Amino acid sequence: MDQKVILTGIKPTGNPHLGNWVGAIRPTVELSRDPAKHGFYFIADYHALTGLKDAAELRDYTYQVAASWIALGLDPESVVFYRQSDVPEVFELSWILACFSPKGLMNRAHAYKAVVQKNQEAGEEDLDAGVNMGLYTYPILMAADILIMQSHWVPVGRDQQQHVEIARDLAQYFNRQYRAEVFTLPEALIDEKGAVIPGLDGRKMSKSYGNTIPIFTPPDQLRKLVFRIATDSSRPGEPKDPESSTIFQLYRLLAKPEDTEAFADEYRKGIAWKDAKEALYALLETTLSGPWARYQDLIAHPEELDRIFAQGAEKARDVASRTMREVRRAVGISH
Ligand code: ADP
Ligand code: TRP
C-alpha cells in the first residue's frame, strides 16, 4: 500500500459552529476527496471526556459532530470514519507510549500549560488545580491515535501542531529503542491561510465565549443569530469598511469571489446593517439548505450513524491490530 495515510480527529465537545466548519470540517472534507490518500477520520470521544462529564452531552455531541461532518461532505464509504472509543487497541498503545514519554514532555504540552497559566492568572495556589491525568497525558492518547494508523499527514489547527510533534518524538524514541521502523513518522498539515472566524461579538468564534453560530440550527433561529451580530453605529447611507465587519468576513467565507466583490461595493456605498445581515442570512440559508436536510435525517436516525460507526470501527481495527502485533513483538509481549 503506497498511498499516504492522512488522519485527523475532532473532539465532540459542542454542537459544531461556523468556526469549526471553516477551520476544521471544510478543509478535511476537501482533503478526504484526494484519491491518492488513504483517509482516517474519527470522533475523538475519549479525548472529550477529559473535560466533559455529562453522559447525555457526550453522546449527543458525538452524533452531532458525526452528522455534521457527513452532511458537509465527508463520505464514510470512501474513507475510514470511526469513533475513537470503538478501537480498544488505541488505549493499549496509549499505555505503551506513556512508558516512553518523559514526564517533562507532558509538562510542556500546550493543553496542560494553558490550564496552569489560567490558574496562575487567577492567583490560584495550586497551579495544577482542575488538571486530571487525562488532560495531563492528552498528547499521549493523541499520539496513539496517530501512530496506530501509521499516519503520514495529520491536518490540524495551529494549536494542535505541538501535539503532532510530540507524536513524532514518541515514534522516534520507540523506533530507536527497538531498532525497527515500527511507526511511520507523522507530520502536521497546517492550513496556512486558515482564517479565524469571528463570532457574534467580533471576538474569535468559540464556544468558550458563547458567541457562536451553530452550523445546523433552524432557519428562524439562524436569522435571529445573524441579526445579533455586533455592528458599529454607522447609519444607512454612510460608507462602511468591509474588512472590519464581522458580517462581511462571514459572507466572504461562503460567497463566490465576484459576489464578495459586489458585497464590498455595497459597503462602500453605505449599505444599511439590516440589509447586510439579510444578505448574509440568505447566503447561509442557501449554502446550508442541502446539508441541513441530510443532517436532520442522520440526527433522526442515530441507528444509521451507529451502522456507519460499526463499519468504520471494523476497518480501523484491522489496521490498528496489525500495528499492535508489531508493537507487542517489539517490546517483548507476545501471546
Ligand atoms: P472552540 O473554540 O469553540 O472550543 P475547538 O477548540 O473545539 O472550538 O476547535 C475545534 C476545531 O475548530 C479546531 O481545529 C479549531 O482550529 C477550529 N476552530 C474553532 N474555532 C474557530 C474559529 N473561530 N475560526 C477558525 N477555526 C476555528
Ligand atoms: N486534539 C485534537 C483537538 O482538540 C483532536 C484529536 C484527537 C486529534 N486525536 C487526534 C486530531 C489525532 C488529530 C489527530 O482538536
TrEMBL record:
Annotated positions binding L-tryptophan: D145
Similarity remark: Belongs to the class-I aminoacyl-tRNA synthetase family.
Alphabetical GO biological process terms: tryptophanyl-tRNA aminoacylation
Motif 'KMSKS' region: where in chain: 204-208
Gene this chain is encoded by: trpS
GO molecular function, one term: ATP binding
GO cellular component: cytosol
Motif mapping: 'HIGH' region: 12-20
Swiss-Prot/TrEMBL catalytic activity: tRNA(Trp) + L-tryptophan + ATP = L-tryptophyl-tRNA(Trp) + AMP + diphosphate + H(+)
Alphabetic keyword roster: Aminoacyl-tRNA synthetase, ATP-binding, Cytoplasm, Ligase, Nucleotide-binding, Protein biosynthesis
Listed EC numbers: 6.1.1.2
PANTHER family per the UniProt record, alphabetical: TRYPTOPHAN--TRNA LIGASE, MITOCHONDRIAL (PTHR43766:SF1)
Compartments where found: Cytoplasm
Protein name, entry field: Tryptophan--tRNA ligase
Protein residues bound to ATP: K11, P12, T13, G19, N20, G157, R158, D159, I197, K204, M205, S206, K207, S208
Top EC class for this record: ligase
Job description of the protein: Catalyzes the attachment of tryptophan to tRNA(Trp).
